[in-house]
Amino acid sequence: MTAPRTKLFVGHLPDGCTNDDVLSLFSKYGTVQECEVKKKYGLVQMDTPKEAEDAIQALNNYKFRGSSLCVEVSIVILFLSLGEL
């Protein structure tokens, strides 16, 4: 199971955004274990909670190709992880 607070939701991605685009943004803040882009949003798995928090702090509301990104801990993963406690 994914560790809580390392899987991030990335919303408001601009049209045409690719996995490589998102990977290049997030890799500045640590090791990206997984990156998956779906149309206007993506999911990014960072290696540690600190790396995830650093990425959130730097990239939430970051202007990228005319869009203001929304970066936060993925709620679904967090709820699933908390349910196992």
Automatic annotation (TrEMBL):
Transmembrane segments: none annotated. Residues 6-76 form the RRM domain. GO terms for cellular component: nucleus. It comes from Araneus ventricosus. This is RRM domain-containing protein. PROSITE patterns: RRM. GO terms for molecular function: mRNA binding. Keywords: RNA-binding.
